[in-house]
Amino acid sequence: MKLRSRSTSVDRGPTKREKYVIPRGVLDIDWQTLFTVAAHRHSGTDEQEALQRVQSLWGTSRATIICQSVRSGLDLLLESLNWRPGSQILMSAATIPQMARVVIEHGLVPVPIDVDRETLAPDLDQLRARITLESKAILIAHLFGSRLNLSELAGIAQLNKLSLWEDVAQGFAADRFPGDDHADVSLFSFGMIKAQTALGAAILRFRDPAVAQRCEEIQLQWPEQPPHHFRQRLWKAVVLKFLTWHPVYSLLIGTAASLGTDYDRLLSQSVRGFDATQLFVQLRRRPCRAMIDLLHNRLAHPARHWMEQKTKLAGRYDELLPVPVRVGSQASFPARWVLPIVSRDPQRLQIRLVRLGFDATRRASQLSVVAAPDDHPQWTATRTHTWLENLLFLPLHPALRDSHIRTIAETIHDIES
Ligand SMILES: Cc1ncc(COP(=O)(O)O)c(C=O)c1O
Asked: pLDDT tens digits, residue range 45-68?
């Protein structure tokens, strides 16, 4: 495709505004499933049987457990291991802040490891240099739907007697990937904005069945997630799904603009699973029956259509976007569910795209950089910081057409050149 000639002027890019705003995305769950959940009457099987039905669908001979979220799962895992305070967990520097918060809650120290923007892999030299006698585990995140090859990391972990955990919260692709065999623990999320969402829930897969059993025993002592909390999430999902129908979304944005409301902040807050002020009270709950049944439904009837469509749209973006803005250009993606780019001026680009009718956002994934530990202030992750703070997520929505992607790409060429 021929793009417009590059220009230094912001005002010379495409100017025709879309009739409707194209929203940033849409929840990956259809109306029928939402209404089935709303009318949910559980099947009469007991909780253990319901859990086993989900576990059998995961297709692994390793032990698995089902939690309310990946954060709850990490909390359980650390509780079960009961490591000495001050022990260190080497983590991908780019993750959601509450993953590091869970580590700290257990008296442990998160140690950030830089993540490369092109490969989305951790810097292995830096990782080796930050291993100490206090190090206990490596927690690696597969970001934005990419999938890392863990073999080299497994070698480092083995050599240093560390556990290797993979955070696949952003990586479920309904492609029967049960977790990497190199990992001691794999953590998958089915949170609100994730692929094939179960409005929450997580699956953890363990190499060591004894660790799985300890986690299971601790979880059994936790109270059940109150069913009305799950129902609140359900109604939130119904509202969000309705709002992200593009004619309605256009109205929403228009109204928010006239009221001076920051809709971007409101939307990103509304998909957060837990209230930060009561985080550990909320994390330490077993998933309720409706959530387990919904997770079963999602795994038993994988709906890959939207995921495949998104992956195609992302492929088109990749063809048209200038190379310097791309994220994960050397990573492998079994599927795409978000499309981040790095901009020299993400705020200006966002404003420009929104004006044209494309709801780009800086808040889609809530990632931030893990801070250096107090006793090793030099262990920063400055390279990750450089690209993460300039991230902008482009829309991936069923209403997105090829002409839209071309307009977005032209605008980006204009601003970034
Ligand atoms: C990289 C990463 N890790 C962990 C999580 C937490 O997953 P959950 O919401 O299931 O706790 C997320 C959630 O977005 C994430 O993006």
From this structure: 788 888 999 999 998 899 999 999
- Distance (angstroms) between ligand 1 centre and the Cα of 137 equals 18
76-111 confidence digits (pLDDT tens): 999 999 999 999 999 999 999 999 999 999 999 999
Question: Does residue 70 come out as left (phi exceeding 0), alpha (psi in the -120 to 50 range) or beta?
Answer: alpha
60: which 2 tokens?
Answer: 């692994």
Low-confidence ranges of the chain (pLDDT < 70): 1-15, 42-44
Helix boundaries (H) for 301-400: 305-320, 346-356, 382-388
What pLDDT is recorded for position 11?
Answer: 44
Taken in order of first residue, the domains within the chain and their CATH numbers are 10-30+229-273+302-416 (3.90.1150.10), 42-221 (3.40.640.10)
Residue found by looking up tokens 């049944």 in the block: 293
Ligand 1 binding pocket includes 311 (Cβ within 6 Å)? no
Residue 95 CB less than 6 A away from ligand 1:
yes
**Residue 302 Cα distances to 27, 120, 333, angstroms:** 15, 27, 18
Asked whether 204 lines ligand 1 (CB < 6 A), one says no
pTM score, whole prediction = 0.93
Ligand 1 contact via 13 beta carbon (within 6 Å): no
CA distance 169 to 171: 6
Alpha-carbon span 368 to 149, nearest angstrom: 23
Residue 8 confidence (pLDDT): 38
Evaluate: CB of 140 within 6 angstroms of ligand 1.
no
- In angstroms, the Cα distances linking 299 to 280, 296, 303, 411 are 28, 5, 9, 39
Q: Separation of 246 CA from ligand 1 center, angstroms?
A: 27
pLDDT at 399: 92
